[in-house]
Structures are given as structure tokens and as C-alpha cells.
Amino acid sequence: MRGGALRSPRRKTDFRVRRRAAPAYTRAMSEKFFDDVIARVVRGEIGGIETPAAICERLRDIARNAPGDAGVAADLVGRPCASSAPLWHAQAFERACHEDNEGAVVRRLYHLRWLAHLCCPEDERFRPTVSLVIPAYNAAGLVTAAIDSCLAQDPAPDEIIVVDDGSSDDTAGAVARFGDRIRLIAQSNRGVSAARNTGVATATGDFIHFLDADDTLLARALADKIAAFRSIPDADLCFSSTLDQGADGRRPNTIPPPDGGPRCATNDFAYAVVRGPALLPSTVMMPRLRALAADLFDETLRRTEDRRYFFRLAVAGVKAIAVGRPLARRRLDTGGAAGPGRPPHEYKAVAVLMNLIDAVDTPRMWRYAPFILLSRWYRIVDVADDRLDTLRQTVRDRLAELGDGAPRGGLSPLLLIQNLALALDWFERNRPRLTAAGLAYHSDIRQALSAAAATAAGPGPADRVYWLDGGPCHGSARPLLDAFSALDDDTEFLADLRRLEVPAASVMWRLTERLAPGLGAARAGHLARVLTRALGPSLRLSFLYRTLADSNGDWMVGDGERWPPRTHD
């Protein structure tokens, strides 16, 4: 393994042996059995308590004896599945048989078709199907190239759905030239999110691949992603990098290709999306069952809808994989598919506030909240808009509720509160110019954090595991947790630390005394000297721990990332 990419451990000779053995096994097993089971699933005869146990047992036997995969897909980046692909699909099919909801049939067909394809790869009846969804708004001069790139795929997609989102030009006429090879859906102008949602709702393929009308697919885009899902069956989403082509002919910098590193979307999808952009809709293919299992694109957003959608997928816990090479070309300066609407920065501010609310409401997403807050805070506090006012008030209410003295998901809200306070500290130092309304809201959030910090539940062992070992975290968390770990038996001092204003001399003396056994006298003395020089007659908790974090490189996170993080608009 190099750079996070998976490589097949088999030799070429092993590959040929396995490929020779597969047809014999295919003849030995009954293809009619798969035909019969698929037909019964389509008719709705398999599901719930009526599921014949013998069918699932037969599928498990087939999966155990099925020929192994011919090898790992080229340029594949991602975390491997714990079991073989046939066995994983057989087990997932059995679980889906006991479900009784709207998407259960889609899940059963997906896993059953994959199992049949893995056992009978030469039989076209069992090949997983792909639906391409292309939203188009005034794209008559662009959409034909996008469609041509889809039809040039080998194998070609099973259906191409173009959603004309109320175009005022001849987009429908440009699509009509392709005849019945394209499924054209016309709707009034409701935005790119609504157009994509319409396409997903009408698609019939096992997979959904998104493509904007001003982008094109490169060769083998679909084949390579199908191969990636064959190698890692439990993946929920597959993407790639892009080649960007500007209107003036220049090729600007592309999004960094997935490398499998700790900050890659294949390892930490939420972090990559927040720090992004890490992936684009035109590179994404996902099982239709995954798309239908979560909320689709927010139709109130005409821009930044993709970042919002991907973050919601991150909250849902998707597993992403990637093909390391570019598989799409993004044509810039073409107007995009958003259509008319509000100014772009208003949509971005709305999306950021929505993501921040989701992060605060989901404890396992707390480590991402400071990065979300800083990504567009200067716009969030300054844009005058009724919808933003509602969202801003919701954010304040959620932060105030953190001070109810109760942990969330076994975690203390105090670490989240202090990390958000540090983010606001950085903002005040680097973006001081705000309108009067912006300053008022900024101050309001400060007060909400201060009030919550005074009464929030204190940290415990689970907080150390989450903030230090669970993923990306800026340096302020480590000294905070070290201090609380060393002082967990001194409830009076813990109460002092949680106050925003405490006597500096008392805190420094007691902190040095308590940390010396764990840190050593030299380091404890060094920290005391740093604090003595830096602090006046009183100190704020956030400044204390920022000073500790900056006093020695050993306090920083594993990869040395310092606060604040670099953010992108």
C-alpha cells in the first residue's frame, strides 16, 4: 500500500488461475436460481416474516464458495471491507429481507444483483445498472457535450436523465437530438437541487451518477467506479478528482487528488467536506439505495447545495472511496446550473449555519464545529436576511442549551464550548471589521458560550478519546484535557477553571503544582514562566489553554496542525 491506495497482493499468474476456474463454478451453480429470486423480489414476494430462510441460506452458501475478486480496481483509494464482496452482499440481502419500508425492495435488488454479478460476471443480465442524472438550466450550448461523454462510456449507462429546470433557451431541443437514448424531464425553474432530486426520484438504476450540464466525463469513469464498488462493497459513495478547464483555455489548479491520508475524504469525509472543496457532484457515484436512505439536496439552496448535501451524508456516517485519477472535466466560467436566485454569499451563509446546527446537535461531529464556524463567520454575522436571522437565533439557542449540565452522547459540551470560543478569538484578531449588527450577534454568541461554560458538564475519559484520538482536532484540546485529567480529583479547582475570570496567580500556582508530577518539573516550570509573562491580573480559560498549546510543540496534534485552521470559502 502506498499513499493510502489499495493494491492487489495477487500475482499475475494467480489472476489467470482464478479467471480460468470461475466459468466452471458458474456452470456448476444455478443461474436460474438467481433469476427466480430476482423475479420474486421484484414482485414483492420476499420480505418481512414471509422470507424463506432456505433462500438466504442458499445465498450464504453460494457466497462462501463464490470465486474471489479478480483483483483490486486500479487507482482505488479507500478502507477495505472486512469480509469478501459476495459474503457481504449475501448478509446485507438477508438483513434487507427483514425490513419493511419504502427502500427495502431497492436494497434487496441491489445486493442480490451484485451477488449474482460476482458469481456470473459474464452474464449481462446481472450487471449492476447505472442512471446518470444531469440537471440543466439554459445549457443548450453545453449539455450536448455532457451527453456525448456519457454515451461514450464503456459500458454505457443504462439510462441518462436530463432534467430541464425551466430553461429559457432551447435546452430541450438540444437534448431531443439524441432521441430515445435520453430521458428528458421538464419542470419549472426550482434550482439545481430540485432538478437533481427529480432525477434521483425517477431513476431506476442500481447506481446514481451525478453530472452537471457544463461538465463532461472522461474515459472509463463509470467502469472504474463500478470496479471500485466491486472491490469495496460496503462503500456508500465513490468519487474522483477532476480536470478543470477555464473559458480562456487555461487549466487552473485542480482539487487535490484523493491520497488516502488522514485528511482525505476516504478516511474522514466530514473533515474533507468542511475544509474542502474535496469533491464535486460531477465525480460522485453512489448506490441509489444510499441516496434514497437520506435527505436529498436542499431545494432552498441554489448554491453551496453540494457542500450542504455532502455534510449531511457525513453526519449520516457514509463510507467514501475514490479513484485516484481524474474521471471528469469541469468546465469553468460557464454559468453553472444554479439559475436565478439570491446572491451566492447568502446561500453559502445559510448552508454554513445549517451545517453548524447539525454539528452542535450531533456529538460525534463536535470536532468539526470550529472549522465550520470559521469558514464563513464574517458573512454569517453581517448579512441581513430573514432566513439567516432565524438560523442565527437557532444557533444561539443550541449553544445556550449546552450549559444544562448534561453530557451529550457521553461527551462533555465544555470542550466544544471552549474550542468555539477559541475560533471566535481568532476571528476577532483577524477580521475585526464588522457592521453594528454583526458585532451585536458576535457578542451575543460570546455571551451564550460564556453562560454555557459556567454550567456545562465536566469532561471525562470519553472526551480524551474523542478529542485526541478520534480524528482532526486543533491544539487547544490537548492541554485542556491534560489539565482536567491531572485535576480530576480536585473539584474545587475544576470549578475555578470553568469560570471565565479567575485570579491568575492562584490558577498558575495550583496548575503548575498539579501538572508537575505528570509533565516533569522542567516543563511545568516552563509553562508557569510563559503564563507569568503572558497574563495580567486575571485570565480567561480559553487564553490559558491557547497559551499552553502554543508554549511547546509537544502540545500540538499529531500532524502538527496549529490553530486556526486554513479555511476555504
Please tell me about this protein's structure.
With 569 residues, the protein is α/β, with parallel strands linked by helices. The protein is 50% helix and 10% strand. It has 24 helices and 11 strands. The protein has helices spanning 12-28, 31-42, 53-65, 85-97, 104-119, 143-151, 171-176, 192-202, 221-231, 269-275, 288-293, 305-316, 344-361, 369-375, 377-380, 386-401, 413-430, 436-455, 461-469, 477-486, 491-497, 504-519, 521-534, 541-551, and strands at residues 76-77, 130-136, 159-165, 183-187, 207-210, 215-217, 237-245, 285-287, 320-331, 502-503, 538-539. The strands form 3 sheets. It has a 5-stranded mixed sheet, with helices on both faces. Strands 1, 6, 7 and 9 form a 4-stranded mixed sheet that branches. Strand 2 (130-136), helix 6 (143-151) and strand 3 form a beta-alpha-beta unit. Helix 3 runs antiparallel to helix 4 (85-97) and helix 19 (461-469) runs antiparallel to helix 20. The longest helix is centred in the C-terminal third of the chain and has 20 residues, at 436-455. It starts with 11 loop residues before the first helix and ends in an 18-residue tail after the last helix. Residues 1-28, 487-491, 496-505 and 532-569 have low confidence and may be disordered.
Q: Which structural category fits the helices and strands?
A: alpha/beta
Roughly how much helix do the residues carry, as a percent range? Answer: 40-55%
Which word captures the global form?
Answer: globular
Mean pLDDT over all positions = 77
Number of strands: 11
Flag low-confidence runs. Answer: 1-28, 487-491, 496-505, 532-569
Number of continuous helical runs: 24
Distance between the termini: 33 Å
Strand order, biggest sheet?
4-3-2-5-8
**SS strand fraction:** 5-15%
The rounded Rg comes to 27 Å
**Sheet bearing the most strands, described?**
5 strands, mixed
